[in-house]
Amino acid sequence: MALPNKLAQASILVYQLPFHKELRQNKFMKIYTKTGDKGESSLFGGTRVPKNHWRLEVYGTLDELNSHLGKALSELQHTGLNNKIPLFVEIQLIKCQETIFTISSHLASENDKAKLRLPDFDHNLVTELENAIDHMNESLPPLTSFILPSGHLAACTLHICRTIARRAERRLVTGLKETNIPDFILVYINRLSDYFFVTSRFINFQAGVKETPWTTK
Questions:
Q1: pLDDT: which is higher, 112 or 67
Q2: Are 129 and 91 in contact (CB under 8 A)?
Q3: CATH fold of 51-139+146-209
């Protein structure tokens, strides 16, 4: 299956989420609302918070992460590398995008009433990431030193994803001081950075690109 078709299907799934009901009902909703012109934004449920609130910091960072994931997927497709990379890699990356959207929607809701409209977490997703990590690791040469981010475009982009996921995790820890965050979110974001690291190595390995070890001089 071609990647654009899979991405289109993923977009349809996201568009069918409950919190997009209002968007479906109003085809001509304006992109700009002018309600954030004074440095505030609304959470699901209507609570107004400053745009540097920890919740916005986290799901803004996750939005950045998702955008880079889309870039990595595009690089897999349009550089001809997708013929060398097993299909499960692209499928898993798209599933990561969908899960990040779900996590972001929960972080944008601070009251239980608003959360009732949101999709629930699939707790098996953490296990899926771990299984994918273990499966790819089996075919990779063992690490004998730190490696520098390099190689194929998609591999490099996934290294960027890894660092953004770590930043999102740090932002989440800030939120722990104010509220309870579901364990799934913390564990999944933590596991994501490991997954991106191994997937980056796997892409370089499948593409025949040598890793660049870090050497001290």
A1: 67
A2: no
A3: Hypothetical Protein Ta1238; Chain: A; (1.20.1200)
